[in-house]
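I trust your eye. Have a critical look at both lines of this record:
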Amino acid sequence: MSQYNKFMVFIDGSNVFHGCRDLKFQISYEKFLPILKEDKNVIRVFFYSGVKPPVSNEKKFLKMLGHLEMEITTKLLKTRSVRCNSCKKVAKIFTEKGIDASLSTDLLWYAFQNAYETAIIVTGDADFIPPIERVRLMGKRIELWAFKHSIGNELKSKVDKVNYIDDIINKIKKK
């Protein structure tokens, strides 16, 4: 075990949800977390996600994550109207606001506090490139977990190590 290198885990819950949906499986965080922590001195795990009002729909899931000793940050999803160009119908869709900013802020804050040497980020979102670049300038390492279909070459080039969730689906999917 790398007992002297301190790790923190930052999970973009929405990115994981959409990646799992695209690949048609449900993730078991009870199975995924031990893989993320394997042979590592993980001192904190953070989970970020938008939630639909009323929040009660996700309460059971968030409570389960809390039992896994994750620190959870949620923001209410916002609704916005979109009009179909073809049929002109208007539909309400949910959009996430503030989650990426919260994850980025924590990633930078804990790096400035020297709370970790390596950050494990679970996302494929290129919006995290600027904070990742700053954290690496501070001498911190970044290990990325992402889905192959949702990660671009630019993000891959900005981190120290890339792991693919696709490669462990059979180990982490809910039965």
